[in-house]
Design a protein that fits this description.
2 domains, four-stranded parallel sheet, 9 strands, alpha/beta
């Protein structure tokens, strides 16, 4: 039976239906301890005998690939290869991939949340209130403000869609724009300097 390791930095109960679906497909599933920082020795122990890994934040170093010769593919949850030594993987014949699109919505939501937080000092006021302090503060409106988006990739476009709900003016710097999206959402394409100069918020 093929064994798959799943996100060694999160406990199985946080992984939703993923382990069950893999088991239903006839795969043996191995989950980690759930510690956010997993030592290399523990990563190696968890990966021994595994043919594949749906990787979390654990580090895939040259030492890991050398110690786990059965490993054939590492697929990162979300995007980015920052936790995987791709050169070491390639040298060992291990494929490395990501899952584009899985985090776009969450990252865009987070960006909008941070924007509102900055505009109204929500986190700062929360900390002050917990200290028993009241600090008068007049925020700035996100409504109808100008949002500068540096890069209209999947996440940039997801932020733009959300910003429309705040009736924001959208300006962006993107060397390779998807013009259909730009025109549909009335986004002004500008130089980076002009985006930074004209924006109330930048993402």
């Amino acid at each position: 039976m093929v064994t798959v390791a799943v996100n060694l930095t999160r406990p199985e109960e946080e992984l939703g239906e993923i382990p069950a679906r893999l088991r239903a497909a006839g795969l043996e599933v191995r989950c980690g301890s759930g510690r956010r920082s997993t030592p290399t020795a523990e990563v190696i122990d968890s990966l021994r005998g595994c043919a594949a890994s749906l990787a979390g934040q654990e580090l895939y170093t040259a030492e890991v690939f050398e110690a786990c010769p059965d490993l054939r593919i590492v697929v990162r949850f979300g995007v980015g290869f920052d936790t995987v030594d791709v050169d070491a993987a390639t040298a060992r014949g291990v494929l490395v991939a990501t899952i584009p699109g899985t985090t776009d919505g969450g990252v865009a939501d987070h960006a909008m949340g941070l924007m509102i937080d900055l505009a109204h000092g929500i986190s700062r006021h929360d900390r002050a209130m917990r200290r028993g302090e009241w600090q008068p503060h007049r925020g700035v409106d996100v409504w109808q403000a100008t949002l500068g988006i540096v890069g209209l990739g999947r996440i940039g476009r997801a932020v733009a869609r959300r910003a429309i709900g705040f009736d924001m003016r959208l300006i962006a710097h993107e060397p390779y724009p998807v013009m259909e999206f730009v025109e549909e959402h009335h986004i002004e394409l500008l130089s980076l300097d002009d985006v930074l100069r004209q924006s109330d918020f930048v993402t």
